[in-house]
Structures are given as C-alpha cells and as structure tokens.
Amino acid sequence: MKETIQYLTSQTFMLSFLVAVVTFALLHVIKKYLVKKVAYTGKDDQHRNTFIGVIFSVVQYLVIIAAVVIILRLHGVNVISIFTGLGIVATIIGLALQDTLKDIIAGINIYNSNFYKVGDMVRYNGEECDVKYFSARVTKFQSIFTNSTYTVNNSTITSIEKIKDIKILSLEFEFDADAKKIRKAFDKTIERAKNNPDIKEMINLGVIYFGQLGAVYGILYRCPAHKNLFVRMELSQILHEEVNKIKIRPLFSSDLNVSMQKQPTK
What we know:
- The chain has 3 domains: 2-96; 112-162, SH3 type barrels (Roll), CATH 2.30.30; 166-245, 2-Layer Sandwich (Alpha-Beta Plaits), CATH 3.30.70.
- Strand 7 (201-210) and strand 8 (214-222) form a beta hairpin.
- The chain has a 5-stranded antiparallel β-sheet.
- It starts with a helix and ends in a 21-residue tail after the last helix.
- The chain is built from 7 helices and 8 strands; from the N terminus they run αααααββββββαββα.
- Helix 1 runs antiparallel to helix 2 and helix 6 (179-193) packs across helix 7.
- By secondary structure, it is an alpha+beta fold.
C-alpha cells in the first residue's frame, strides 16, 4: 500500500513537471510564432503589430492559468471549491492582481483609442522615443538620442505626445529683404534634398507669417518621425548654404517645429 502511494505521488510530480515543461515550451512557441513569424514579417503594419502584442499578452496569461489549474487538479485539489468557497482568498488574489488589472484595462484603452501603435514616434518624459513593443500590460519606448529602452506599465501612462510626420523648417528675414531671392534659395534647397529617400514630400510655402521683426519663410516636409532629426539636420545645412549664396542674412529665429495633422496636397 505504501509503495502504491509512493508510486502515485511520484507519478503525480512527474506529470506536474511535464505540464510545466509543456507550458513553457508552448509559451516559447507562441511568442516565437506570433512575434517573429506573424507580427514582423517585413510588413509595415503598425495596427497589426500592436494587436499581436495585446493578443500574445492575453494568451500568455490564459496558458499560465490553465497550467496552474491542471497541476492543482493532479494533486487532488478541488479548484472549483476553492474559487467558490474561499471568498477571502479570492479577495486577496484580487488585491494582488489589482495593479495588473489596471495595466490591462489601460492597455485595452490605449489600443482601442489608437493612442499610439508599435512603430509610432512619441515624446515621453521629454524624450523623443520610438514605440518598440506594446502588450496588454506594458509598453517599451526606445529613445532615438540615447538608444535607452524604457519599459513602462500602461496604467502609469496618463498623457503622451504623438509626433507627426509633417514638419516645417523656417527662417525669418527682414521685411525689405528680396523675396524672390529668398524663395529661390528655398527652391534650391528642395531641389538638392529631393533625392533623400527619407523625405516623402517637400513644399516651398513662401511667407508663412509675419513676425515682429520680419517675414518668416518656410519649407514643409514629410518624413518618418524617427528620421526627422537627421532629415532636419540635412535640410538646415543645405538651406544655410543656399541662403549664404544669395548674401541675405536671416534674422535670429528659433525653429518653429510646427506639427500638422493633415498631409499636404500637391
């Protein structure tokens, strides 16, 4: 009898170990398939990649819960009676999972409201960051300046700025400056920069508004948000060279850094 009990106990632990191994293997396969084979197949689909992150997070929790229930059942624990009869335990578990539930609810709200997606450029804690990963619980941001990665619980993200892909580069000149020469310098800048594959569109806006000291001229351009820093540097360098050629000194003026909602029409 004693040997039989020992055999059954040993068999139960072996089955429990097998369930645990299968669970970890299943999670690995799901993650590898969903994230590498489905989400990132060379398709630039931000909605799809974000949705995959949420689905994997939910599936992960369901698989783990199912494995725990199976292991408890193997050891003779009546799981149903635990959940129905021990209200105190359920309360403790609920309190323990309170932050997790907040994160999941916040993640669902972020996804449903299209707050941001995988691949979007956002400004988080004063830094321009790329959204690298999104799940029901957390979001991973990567700074384009320092390359640092931040993993943030979704429930702690109360506000964030989504950076648009349309910008304006501007310079201010005195009111009596030769407008034709200035526009020509801006046209030359566009002509020289048009071969940059990161720039999708450029428009010479001419005078965009009048400041207190002079007229402000601008170039509207569109490029991926995470490429903006390098595109702006190139455009600024070219514009500086072209303005020097016409020998008209611009007034000191900080970059407008204008973000626009709609794409320009030709």
